[in-house]
Amino acid sequence: MKTKTKLRLGIYLFLFAAICVVIGLSWQRESQRKHLPEAMRQTIEENHRIGKMKQKIKVSGHQAIAIYYPHLGSAEIDANIESAIEEAIEKFEQENQGVEGLCTLYADYESYELNERYGSVQISFERTGAVNMKEVRAWTFDLQQDRLIRFSDLFSAEGMKHLAFLTRSFLTTLAPGQENQDYEMDENVLINNKAELYLGEDELRVVLPPQTLQAQKEELIAVIPLNKVIGYVAEDTRNLLGLQTHGRIIDPTRPMVAMTYDDGPNRQVTPVILDALKEHNGAATFFVLGSRVANHQDIVKRMLDEGSEVGNHTFGHVDLTKQSSQGILDQLAATWEAIQEAGSLDHQELLVRPTYGAYNDTLKKTSPYPLILWSIDTRDWAHQNADKSVDEVMREVQDGDIILMHDMYEPTAQASVRVIEWLSEQGYQLVTVSELFEARGIQLEPGKTYNCAYPTKAH
Predict the structure, then answer these.
(1) Residue 118 and residue 242: Cα distance in Å, rounded?
(2) Each residue's pLDDT tens digit, 86-140
(3) Residue among 59, 107, 101, 103 at smallest CA distance from 86
(4) CA distance 174 to 287
(5) How many angstroms separate the first and last alpha carbons of the chain?
(6) N or C: which end of the chain has fewer CB within 10 A?
(7) Which of 78, 182, 262, 401 is catalytic?
């Protein structure tokens, strides 16, 4: 037989053998997969945006393992992912030795491509058996340079402090009203890479695997809108990663004020204010009367859709200092119910402005919500003169102020248009009350009163 023919035959035999091996492994994996519980056979394909999906399937005795993960073709990043998977499998097998009954380890992932160079992967592990636990691991990476992106690659020291504050604030919403040491963290958790980073389309996730914080038993994930932190990311870094946000970007390093309006909505006045805010990329907090919402649901919905905040000013302009604890709760609950019929409050903090700015110990002890007062009172309701309202703001305003107006009077609409334009020209950001306090690193607490959020040396 000629040498070339032998060589060709050898190549064919090798290819045939390789194909048989691949088919055999595939058949074996699929055979094992069929023995998995139904819930472990499902994957969410639309979340698998980066890399080639790989899987580890193993069914042995009472143990079933199904792990889906991406292969990115990047040595360091793939090694990190493989290491996390092997660690999860080893932990699962060790803790379930000798355990009777079905024990499962299931993992799936989601990934997001920031651009051709940068992306993020989050793998969610769920195990049952001797220990029932969910655990999440996350990586953001630079495929071109084959390296992981850390929080310190994005944020300055001041940015780290602010991100740590936002993370704490988010985590406390998971168990409102409870003091939980699981949430006690500072920027060192980010600096020391104990927390893991996932960058999505409009959000940043701070992923804290179990035992990252003191007494933390399970995973904790804080989801932070990008527009709340992107101001701390240098513009060139922002552009390099392709970070974009929909909506306003709040820069905590720049001056800001919170415009607030009581007693509305009003069909002739409130839309004029909203138009001015929209023109100048701003937002405000509207403390509405519950009794007025039903006939103005379209306006309340617009407030929420355009990024403003809707607060509670009682249902019928009732003096809360003259109410029993139950009366206070009834007034607030009726108003929230009316607002929620107009639009969702899921993505904003719930705030109360007591009528007349009046409060007492009963109100402070009863209110499940922060009580927001003001630092500049335009007295627009008394004089109903646009020039006087504008002059009051121009004379008194400083960074961190909360300005009180009432969206019930035509002169207030005229004054608002002028004030909003002037503040923007002076470099002030027009933010909601919640955004103002977030930017200053102040967590609002139920039953406490707040007049302003002036900058401190720490911020």
Answers:
(1) 8
(2) 999 999 999 998 888 899 999 999 999 888 899 999 999 999 999 898 889 999 9
(3) 107
(4) 25
(5) 84
(6) N
(7) 262
Q: How far apart are CA 174 and CA 246, in angstroms?
A: 25
Could you confirm whether 262 is annotated as catalytic?
Answer: yes
pLDDT tens digits for 380-391? 999 999 999 999
Which CA distances in Å does 59 have to 34, 47, 97, 331?
10, 25, 14, 58
Cα-based angle 440, 446, 452 (whole degrees, multiple of 5): 35
Is the pLDDT score of 198 beyond 50?
Answer: yes
For CA atoms 76, 80, 85, 89, the dihedral sign is positive
Q: Which of 112, 141, 105, 107 is nearest to 48 (CA)?
A: 112
Verify whether residue 387 is a known catalytic residue. no
Torsion from C-alpha of 86, 92, 93, 99, nearest 10 degrees: -170
Alpha-carbon distances, residue 450 vs 261, 351, 354, 372 (angstroms): 16, 11, 11, 5
Is there a contact between 273 and 284 (Cβ–Cβ < 8 Å)? yes
pTM above 0.70? yes
**Rounded distance between C-alpha atoms, residue 410 and residue 389, angstroms:** 12
